[in-house]
Design goal:
There is one protein chain. It is built from three helices and six strands; from the N terminus they run βββββαβαα. By secondary structure, the chain is an alpha+beta fold. It has one domain: 2-Layer Sandwich (Double Stranded RNA Binding Domain). It has a three-stranded antiparallel sheet. Strands 4-5-6 form a three-stranded antiparallel sheet. A hairpin with a 7-residue loop joins β2 and β3. The longest helix is centred in the last third of the chain and has 21 residues. The chain is elongated.
């Protein structure tokens, strides 16, 4: 994931941390009165539209898949305020960002090729239906002419 100065996001090349902007503000999360005096909330911003590291194809795929999370300038924002420590929140924001980008950059699955059921599976299905019908017939009260 993050090795020193790069983040592995599943792109052709690892993303330099220098392309990420971090901002720290006061947190509303855990910490009690401690949060009133320290800025532990980590906000990571990544300019997806202007990133020189991503290829055009990767950028287009990520922009399409993350469109609901991007602002009007094509920037992605990830926030972490779960921990009391600024460093842990920074690591958490980096991890969330990497997971988000890996899912966004993953190649689409191959299209499903429809298949037909095998003759044996069709026969087994019909036989099961026949047995269920037979059980229901056996539950009926006897006919008046018996």
């Amino acid at each position: 994931m993050a090795d020193g100065d790069v983040v592995e996001i599943g792109a052709a090349a690892p993303l330099p941390v220098s392309e990420l902007d971090f901002r720290f503000t006061r947190s509303g999360g855990p910490g009690g009165q401690h949060v009133n005096t320290s800025s532990t909330r980590a906000e990571l911003t990544f300019d997806l539209a202007g990133s020189p590291t991503l290829t055009d194809q990767e950028r287009e795929r990520a922009m399409r898949r993350l469109r609901s999370r991007l602002d009007s300038e094509g920037r992605l924002r990830v926030v972490a305020q779960d921990e009391r420590s600024q460093g842990r929140n920074r690591s958490l924001a980096l991890r969330r960002f990497a997971e988000l980008m890996q899912r966004a950059l993953a190649p689409p699955p191959p299209p499903r090729r429809p298949t037909r059921p095998s003759r044996a599976s069709a026969t087994k299905r019909i036989e099961g239906k026949r047995r269920a019908g037979q059980n229901k017939r056996l539950r009926r009260p006897p006919d008046a002419d018996d």
